[in-house]
């Protein structure tokens, strides 16, 4: 039986962690990971943890301000993820539960679930009724826009640790450069390795069709977000006309966005981002929608928690593996033969390396 927990305080810490492999996308190049660490402290001495990847330090600062407002609204409340989420959604309804507010509430949801499962002394996956198992993972560290020889070398290096799948970013100004880079990676890695292609919304519908037809013969696992993420009609057309699977979803702002995309047949497969879909609570709803539609569901970032949730998702597909938070974790995720199994520790398994946190702390 889980003891009743009540919320005492929320502490946030901004760290900027150097990335072992810079991420160069069609939108921008990222060399450091701005992470906002969240500690949800309870009156019973149990602390629930979560973190956000904020893309920009400014994003982390804005979200931290949201938490300053939030704690005044929920201090003394029971640690009940659904009830807390509903209360705060009502509070912020007039300005809209989106952007930094939605990400703050999602991270709070994760921290609530972590606190409950730490108190119960079981891993999150078991608390949710699942059984820990090995989830296939693709290495998504680095592999940004670069010349064909360089991108092939880096793609090969990403197989270290037993990975059998990697993601590469495309979206060069010249279509021929996309094709050259894609073919170099495909040739170097061979047919036994899955390669995912991500355009980060760089193309128009017409350009996506042209480039997609050129990539179709290469046998990629999917083409991700070729156009603006919420152009569901355009995505649906691309999915109909290309042979390669179209993947969207990392920008779904809550399960309702997934529902709209499914209704529009906007993709062949979907992925959700833990802190955009609504935390653990939002993910569970999204997983149910994907299962009803019979569509495969993958994760976006946050592999430490996503591994637990994929184990309880009926149409579980791929885990996106990044190591951006590893430098500030006491026990980072372990990859075995290209798979990740949720750790057999209470809660999500997150635990801050306080010495590293102090080293990378901002402000």
Write up what this structure looks like.
The structure is a single chain. By secondary structure, this protein is of the alpha/beta class. It folds into two domains: 121 residues, 2-Layer Sandwich (Enolase-like, domain 1); 227 residues, Enolase-like C-terminal domain (TIM Barrel, Alpha-Beta Barrel). The chain has 13 helices and 13 strands. A six-stranded parallel β-sheet has the order 5-6-7-8-9-10. A hairpin with a 4-residue loop joins strand 1 and strand 2. The radius of gyration is 20 Å and the shape is globular. 49% of the residues are buried. The mean pLDDT is 95.
Write a brief structural summary:
The chain folds into two domains: 7-121 and 355-360, Enolase-like, N-terminal domain (Enolase-like, domain 1), CATH 3.30.390; 126-352, TIM Barrel (Alpha-Beta Barrel), CATH 3.20.20. Helices cover 40% and strands 21% of the residues.
The strands making up the biggest β-sheet line up spatially as 5-6-7-8-9-10
User: Span from first to last CA?
Assistant: 40 Å
CATH H-level homologous superfamily name of the largest domain? Enolase-like C-terminal domain
Task: Please tell me the CATH architecture of the largest domain by its name.
Answer: Alpha-Beta Barrel
Can you tell me the CATH topology of the largest domain? TIM Barrel
Residue stretches low in confidence (pLDDT < 50, at least 5 long) are: none
Question: Helix-strand pattern, N to C?
Answer: EEEHHHHEHEHEHEHEHEHHEHEEEH
Q: What characteristic shape results from the CA principal axes?
A: globular
Tally of separate helices: 13
Give the rounded overall mean pLDDT.
95
Main pleated-sheet profile: 6 strands, parallel
Count of individual beta strands: 13
CATH C-level of the largest domain: Alpha Beta
Rg to the nearest angstrom? 20 Å
Strand content: 15-25%
Strand pairing plus helix content: what structural class?
A: alpha/beta
């Amino acid at each position: 039986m889980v003891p009743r927990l009540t919320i005492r305080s929320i502490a946030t810490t901004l760290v900027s962690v150097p990335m072992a492999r810079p991420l160069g996308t069609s939108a921008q190049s990222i060399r450091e990971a701005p992470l906002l660490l969240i500690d949800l402290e309870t009156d019973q001495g149990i602390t629930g943890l979560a973190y956000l990847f904020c893309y920009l330090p400014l994003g982390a600062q804005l979200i931290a301000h949201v938490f300053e407002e939030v704690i005044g609204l929920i201090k003394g409340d029971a640690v009940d993820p659904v009830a807390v989420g509903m209360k705060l959604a009502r509070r912020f309804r007039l300005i809209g539960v989106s952007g930094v507010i939605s990400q703050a509430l999602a991270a709070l949801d994760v921290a609530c679930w972590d606190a409950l499962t730490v108190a119960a002394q079981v891993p999150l996956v078991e608390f949710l009724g699942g059984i820990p198992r090995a989830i296939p993972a693709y290495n998504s560290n680095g592999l940004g826009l670069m010349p064909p020889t360089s991108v092939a070398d880096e793609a090969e290096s990403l197989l270290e640790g037993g990975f059998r799948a990697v993601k590469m970013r495309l979206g060069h100004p010249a279509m021929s450069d996309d094709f050259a880079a894609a073919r170099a990676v495909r040739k170097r890695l061979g047919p036994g390795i899955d390669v995912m292609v991500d355009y980060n919304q760089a193309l128009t519908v017409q350009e996506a069709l042209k480039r997609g037809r050129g990539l179709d013969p290469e046998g990629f696992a999917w083409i991700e977000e070729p156009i603006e993420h919420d152009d569901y009609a355009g995505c649906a057309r691309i999915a109909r006309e290309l042979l390669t699977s179209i993947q969207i979803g990392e920008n779904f702002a809550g399960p309702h966005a997934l529902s709209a995309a499914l209704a529009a047949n906007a993709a062949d497969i979907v992925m959700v981002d833990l802190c955009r879909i609504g935390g653990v609570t939002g993910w569970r709803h999204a997983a149910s929608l994907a299962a009803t539609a019979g569509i495969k569901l993958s994760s976006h970032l946050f592999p430490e928690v996503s591994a637990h949730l994929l184990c309880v998702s009926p149409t579980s597909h791929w885990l996106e593996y990044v190591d951006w938070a590893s430098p500030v974790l006491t026990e980072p995720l372990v990859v075995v033969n290209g798979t990740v199994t949720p750790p057999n520790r209470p809660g999500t398994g997150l635990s801050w390396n306080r010495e590293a946190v102090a080293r990378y702390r901002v402000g």
